[in-house]
Structures are given as structure tokens and as C-alpha cells.
Amino acid sequence: MEMEYRDRRDAGEQLAGQLAQLRGRPGVVVLGLLRGGAPVAAVVADQLDVAYDVLVIRKLGLPSAAEVAFGAIGPGGVRVLNPEIADQLAPGQIARITTAETTELRRRERLFRGDRPPLDLRGRTAVLVDDGLATGASARAAVTVSRSLGADRVVLAVPVGSAEAIGTLQDVVDEVVCPLRPTDFRAVGCYYQDFHQVSDDEVTALPVGR
To answer: Residue 171 and residue 69: Cα distance in Å, rounded?
Structure first.
């Protein structure tokens, strides 16, 4: 039987063990991809004694199956498309979904970042953390955003991921850390005993900054 995590805290603790070389290093910031990645990232940052913040990325899901991403968007107008899936849609559909998700992205930025200044990653190592990696669309958008914000080094760290998605991202990041890489990948939630939907309140309660 394949390994399972008890919950996102357990996943964060195990992920932090794989990132021990970054413990206490100045210039490192752990960025949780909202919302599911935030509680994992907060644990990683606490265990490593480095800065923690959030990065708002919105998945662009198919109209008939919202959990299947044809792309993702991030701050600053960044949009990444997965052509193999996006080509199933008409340009008008893509535009409508992108507009709706952009509105939600801006709402979440106001909610989770508040009055804090925009992220500045110049000269820093950005550790991008999500609770899992399925298609990789959100992670690719996060990488693009991090690079545009000046990150010197980008590390993608996820507790579980599909080999296909990891393969597509290895060339755009400096390092991929993923302890669990199932040969027959299923949905991310299949590898957690507790995979509840993370609420806005749960994210806002996490300590930000350092």
C-alpha cells in the first residue's frame, strides 16, 4: 500500500525533513500556494526557521470538470496554459473563465495579503509549496510569478506529485523536492487521510512574515 499523510501538517513536517539544508538560511522564503498549500507551507517554514508568505494562484478548470486544469493565472497578469487540455476549448470559453478567475484572484489577494506590500523576491530563494501536484499548471504559474519577482533560485516542494507533472517542471525550476511519486498517480486527496477543503479563515489564521 502506498504511503499516506495524516493531514497537511504531517505532510509539511515530512516535507521539511527533505529541505533540511535550507534550515535557518537567510534569504529563503516559503510560499504557500493558496489555499491548500498554505498550511503545508506554514509548517515547512516553521520547521526550517525561515520566512513564510502566501502566493495567490488560480487554477483555470474545464467547464465540465473544474478540477481538471487547462491552465492557471497569478499576480501581475501571468497566465500559463496547458495546450493539450486548453485546445479542447474555444477562445471565448478560455477568456470567460480567465476573467472570472482573475476576479477571484484579486479578491483573495486583498483578503490574504491585506495592506502588506507586494512580494519582492529579489535576491531570495523562493520555496513554492502546494499540497500536491497533479497537472502542474498552478505550479508553473507560480514559478513564472516568482521569476518575474526576481527570485534568484526557485525550489518546488510538494508532498506528492505525478511523475508526468514533475517531468514538465524540472526544466523551469532549480530543484524539485517531492517525497511521494506514485507510479499510478490518482487525485492528490487520495494520498491524505484528512484532505478537507482549506477555508479562508484557516489561511488567514496562519502567521505570515518574518
So the answer is: 20
Number of domains in the chain: 1
Query: What's the rounded Cα separation, in Å, for the pair 167 and 175?
Result: 12
Distance (Å, whole) CA 197 – CA 179: 22
Domain that holds residue 162: 8-204
pLDDT digits (tens, 9 = 90+) for 34-66: 889 999 999 999 999 999 999 998 889 999 888
Q: Which three cell numbers stand for residue 157?
A: 516542494
**Would you state the cell numbers that stand for residue 151, as one nine-digit string?**
527570485
DSSP 74: E
Identify the residue whose cell numbers are 517525497.
179
Total Cβ atoms within 10 A of residue 127: 29
Distance, C-alpha 53 to centroid of its chain: 12
154 belongs to a structural domain: yes
pTM of the model: 0.87
- Judge whether 173 lies within some domain: yes
For residue 143, the domain's CATH number is 3.40.50.2020
CA 155 vs CA 18, 58, 102, 202: distances in Å: 12, 20, 25, 25
